């Protein structure tokens, strides 16, 4: 019946329809000759993506700095006006530290979603999907999967959130599963630490190889998932290339706020809860015999430093100041060792022993659940070095 209907329509058009000899060329078609060109399409797309990330992280660095200064000022205010104790540490290190760790990324999230909304409303997002669709199909994905994977190099959290633009549940699940293989910026301190510890030459090449290895594993994982767990292929998605339009500021702000609100509600809550849990596991039990001994040493050294300052012996004062810093690091190390997370690290250490990990590395891995960049700071404390002293930490790791 359907074939008969379309046959009748085709016959009627052939007898009555006279096409115009003058072909109208729209502005959209003129722009598409460059945007979707076989040779120029991909370079133009890569330039837009580079410009998006450049503006996001370069321009977003200023409000990020302001937010960090605000969080530090609030922490300093609470530190001065609250009485000492675990409740004070909970507010400053746990709650405020967790919330500050989430809010600090808000400018980057806003700018990133601004450019995504801009590309969607102008009609360029459909062209970008069209350009990358052929390459992504070779690994069993849709062209829309390329945008979240590219965003994963900035931050995996908004990248996984952006998979909502993928209509196919199969492609959306595969994209979310392979997105963590994209090395986000939070892993860079960890990469630099280990590259400095184990590689003397060709460090830039090693860093590039790490990123390339992650991309290769992501491609292999996508092929594996598409042929095993997600073998069923959905109905092919047909997308119409819309005409180019000038987006309204109201629509852009609405899209930005809607997605940013979801980020703050869901992701912010999870990160905050994880930060508090990690803080509590590393904070309790608070005191042991070793930490009390270090406290007595700190009290003695502080009294000696005050006497040296009153007597005008600056050299002795500076020497005692270094001893105080070293004793504080040792006390923090002792406290981490006897805390609940230290006990858990020593409990799981036999399971990680085949990898060459001791209990200190096991604790660092557990602390990295909340945020990957915490691993370096944890290693610095547990290996009795300052977190900023990367060279000393590297020597400790090698030993």
Helix-strand blueprint:
Blueprint: H1 2-16, H2 27-35, H3 41-59, H4 61-81, H5 86-103, H6 106-122, H7 124-137, H8 146-151, H9 156-161, H10 169-178, H11 188-198, H12 203-227, H13 249-283, H14 289-311, H15 314-338, H16 340-352, H17 359-367, H18 374-382, H19 390-398
Describe this structure in words.
- With 399 residues, the protein is mostly helical.
- 74% of the residues lie in helices and 0% in strands.
- The protein is built from 19 helices and no strands.
- The protein has helices at 2-16, 27-35, 41-59, 61-81, 86-103, 106-122, 124-137, 146-151, 156-161, 169-178, 188-198, 203-227, 249-283, 289-311, 314-338, 340-352, 359-367, 374-382, 390-398.
- Helix 3 runs antiparallel to helix 6 (106-122) and helix 5 (86-103) packs antiparallel against helix 13 (249-283).
- It starts with a helix and ends with a helix.
- Mean pLDDT is 77; it is low at 384-399.
In which range does the helix fraction lie? over 70%
Gyration radius over CA:
28 Å
Low-confidence stretches: 384-399
Supply the helix-strand structural class: mainly alpha
Labels describing this entry:
single chain, 399 residues, mainly alpha, 19 helices, elongated, disordered C terminus
């Amino acid at each position: 019946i359907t074939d008969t209907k379309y046959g009748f329509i085709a016959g009627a058009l052939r007898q009555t329809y006279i096409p115009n000899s003058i072909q109208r060329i729209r502005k959209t078609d003129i722009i598409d000759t460059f945007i979707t060109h076989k040779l120029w399409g991909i370079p133009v797309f890569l330039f837009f993506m580079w410009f998006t990330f450049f503006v996001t992280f370069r321009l977003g660095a200023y409000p990020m700095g302001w937010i960090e200064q605000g969080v530090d000022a609030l922490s300093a205010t609470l530190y001065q006006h609250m009485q000492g104790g675990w409740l004070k540490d909970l507010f400053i290190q746990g709650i405020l530290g967790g919330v500050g760790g989430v809010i600090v990324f808000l400018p980057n999230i806003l700018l990133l979603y601004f450019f995504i909304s801009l590309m969607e409303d102008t009609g360029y997002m459909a062209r970008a999907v069209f350009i990358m669709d052929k390459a992504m199909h070779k690994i069993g994905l849709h062209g829309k999967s390329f945008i979240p994977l590219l965003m994963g190099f900035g931050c995996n959290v908004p990248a996984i959130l952006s998979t909502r633009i993928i209509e196919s549940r199969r492609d959306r699940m595969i994209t979310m599963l392979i997105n963590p293989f994209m090395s986000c910026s939070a892993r860079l301190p960890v990469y630099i630490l280990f590259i400095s510890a184990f590689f003397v030459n060709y460090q830039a090449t090693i860093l590039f190889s790490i990123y390339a290895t992650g991309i290769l594993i992501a491609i292999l994982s996508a092929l594996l998932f598409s042929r095993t767990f997600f073998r069923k292929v959905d109905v092919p998605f047909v997308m119409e290339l819309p005409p180019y339009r000038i987006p309204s500021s109201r629509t852009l702000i609405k899209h930005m706020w809607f997605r940013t609100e979801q980020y703050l509600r869901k992701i912010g809550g999870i990160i905050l809860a994880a930060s508090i849990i990690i803080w509590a596991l590393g904070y309790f039990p608070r005191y042991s015999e070793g930490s009390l001994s270090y406290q007595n040493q700190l009290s003695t050294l502080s009294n000696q430093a005050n006497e040296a300052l009153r007597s005008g012996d600056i050299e002795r004062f500076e020497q005692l100041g270094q001893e105080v810093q070293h004793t504080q690091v040792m006390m923090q190390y002792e406290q981490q060792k006897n805390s609940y997370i230290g006990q858990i690290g020593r409990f799981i250490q036999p399971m990680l022993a085949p990898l060459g990990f001791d209990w200190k590395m096991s604790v660092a891995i557990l602390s990295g659940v909340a945020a990957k960049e915490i691993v370096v700071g944890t290693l610095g404390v547990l290996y009795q070095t300052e977190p900023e002293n990367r060279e000393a930490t590297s020597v400790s790791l090698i030993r």
